[in-house]
Amino acid sequence: MKSFKNKFLYFIEKVPGDFFSNTLIYLCEHDGNGAFGFIVNQPTDFTVSKFLSSIGSKSNNHITSFERLMRGGPVDLDKVFMLHNDRSISNANTSPLTDRLFLTSAPDVINSVNTNAGPNKFKLFLGYCGWSANQLESEIKNNSWHVIDANTDLIFDEPPHNLISAVSEDLGYDLSNISGESKKVH
After folding, report:
1. The dihedral sign for the CA sequence 75, 120, 101, 43
2. Could you tell me whether strands 101-104 and 94-98 are parallel, antiparallel, or unpaired per DSSP bridges?
């Protein structure tokens, strides 16, 4: 089985109103048991500081006042996850995804962004995208997803609304012009 871990998935199907329409997903894990990742280009209406204050965390960090909580996906909408770039955070609930990208759901790490003690680059996600064993492979085979090598710096360095354009520029072609008939795996 070919793993698509640490890849971007772009939803090819052009179905108006579909949950995944115009989404770019970073795939954190993909193995024989299934896959999971986060939608990286769809912010919610909530700022990180507003969200953190709603769970009792006081903000004194200007970054959280404009950074948006991201819509991670349709699964476990009551859970918050963080992708960040700080390898010095050592925690049982923090997993390295690459040498420069880490995943955590630890409340102390999530709350640390409010006090400038947390990672300097981060995204908070509400929920995630999940696939059961062989489900993602089947969807890719049926031309629902375009698989792309992930430039994870873009997750932090580009505004969410510009991610598809930035990835398209990296690739040299416009993702929004892809149809299921012209899909290719990179």
Report:
1. positive
2. antiparallel
For residue range 86-132, what is the model confidence (pLDDT) as tens digits?
887 767 678 999 999 999 988 888 778 777 777 888 999 999 999 99
Q: Is the alpha carbon torsion for 165, 168, 172, 178 positive or negative? A: negative
Cα 138 from Cα 1, distance rounded (Å)? 12
DSSP characters for 151-181? Answer: -THHHHHS-GGGHHHHHHHHHTS-GGG--GG
Beta bridge partners of 10: 24, 146
pTM: 0.89
- Sorted by where each starts, the structural domains of the chain and their CATH numbers stand as 7-182 (3.40.1740.10)
Structural tokens at position 17: 């109103």
Which of 5, 24, 118 lies closest to 67 in space, CA to CA?
A: 118
At position 46, the amino acid (one-letter code) is F
